[in-house]
Write a sequence for this structure.
């Protein structure tokens, strides 16, 4: 019934750190990413090339992306909002560009300062330039399961954004529960609609764990045939332009559950516990991940 293996897309260095008040030094970010590279995780989203006034925590994106030790077989991704960001990203040796927008107008406006309609041409250019540079392009759609400003989000809005991004040429779409409001029943209802239009192997799920439902939502997604999940080490994360949003599902918790079920991820839980320990010390506060806290109290 369960898949033999699943793919984890680690977003800790980007989603995990973007909302942190403490500025993690460039050197520490690089050291942390290098630990993640050696952990068996094959996909790391390492930073974002957005306006540093909007996301000060990642203002050292070029230095981080240029400073890491790339491990063969690991894909290094950066989040990019526009051509200006792409120009910066291309000064480094990243493999993949992630573009992003929301299914709800208000979150899109608050997060990237444009209407949905005005975002499409920006992303169209961005996807085209990414692909013509020989890089892979991944897409995110945020607020799929609810918007902090508008509440319920119409599935038709999700379909419209998803179809438009796939038409532009993205390889994979990550469906974001930006503020962690989804429940397993809703996840299955949304996936039932989307899987009629897009193949399961091109959809990823991106659950924030604000209300403790992320692992249940992942299980519900697994039952629907989804095998790609975004997670963040230690359970860090959140979007500063989505009030109330907190961390992503913790990679530590996800691995604990999946490995216990006999589902392979390729990641080494012990190495990741050390990497969680490292970033917890740098941040100077306890990480939200329950399985990490349980492992470190042993
Ligand atoms: P804007 O102000 O509308 O941009 O911002 P603009 O094109 O009008 O330019 C204004 C200024 O921004 C100019 O500088 C540009 O140079 C600068 P000034 O002349 O005023 O000094 N600028 C840039 N600087 C650096 N890099 C760039 C860049 N672009 C413009 N790429 C913009 C529009 C999109 C840039 C801005 O709104 C922004 O940076 N937003 C990013 C917000 C963000 O990063 N949010 C979190 C990530 S999304 C997320 O977390 C959700 C996700 O995890 C999935 C989920 O959970 O649902 C992915
Ligand atoms: Mg997110």
């Amino acid at each position: 019934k369960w898949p033999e293996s699943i793919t984890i897309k680690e977003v800790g260095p980007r989603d995990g750190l973007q909302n942190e008040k403490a500025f993690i030094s460039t050197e520490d970010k690089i050291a942390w990413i290098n630990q993640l590279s050696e952990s068996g995780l094959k996909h790391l989203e390492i930073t974002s090339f957005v306006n540093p006034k909007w996301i000060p925590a990642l203002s050292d994106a070029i230095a981080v992306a240029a400073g890491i030790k790339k491990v063969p077989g690991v894909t290094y991704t950066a989040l990019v909002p526009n051509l200006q960001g792409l120009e910066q990203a291309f000064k480094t040796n990243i493999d993949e560009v992630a573009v992003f927008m929301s299914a709800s107008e208000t979150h899109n406006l608050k997060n990237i300062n444009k209407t949905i309609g005005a975002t499409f041409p920006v992303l169209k250019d961005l996807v085209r330039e990414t692909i013509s540079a020989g890089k892979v392009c991944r897409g995110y759609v945020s607020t799929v399961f609810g918007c902090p400003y508008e509440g319920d989000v119409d599935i038709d809005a999700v379909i419209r954004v998803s179809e438009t991004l796939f038409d532009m040429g993205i390889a994979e779409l990550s469906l974001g529960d930006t503020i962690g409001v989804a429940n397993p029943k809703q996840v299955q209802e949304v996936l039932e609609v989307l899987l009629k239009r897009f193949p399961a192997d091109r959809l990823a799920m991106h659950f924030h764990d604000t209300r403790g439902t992320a692992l249940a939502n992942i299980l519900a997604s697994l039952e629907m045939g989804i095998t790609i999940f975004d997670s963040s080490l230690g359970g860090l994360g959140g979007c500063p332009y989505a009030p109330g949003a907190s961390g992503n599902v913790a990679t530590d918790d996800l691995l604990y559950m999946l490995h216990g079920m006999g589902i392979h991820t390729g990641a080494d839980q012990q190495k990741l516990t050390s990497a969680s320990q490292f970033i917890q010390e740098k941040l100077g506060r306890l990480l939200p991940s329950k399985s990490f806290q349980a492992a470190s109290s042993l």
In short: The radius of gyration is 17 Å. Residues 15, 176, 178, 206, 208, 237, 239, 248 surround magnesium ion (ligand 2) (CB under 6 Å).
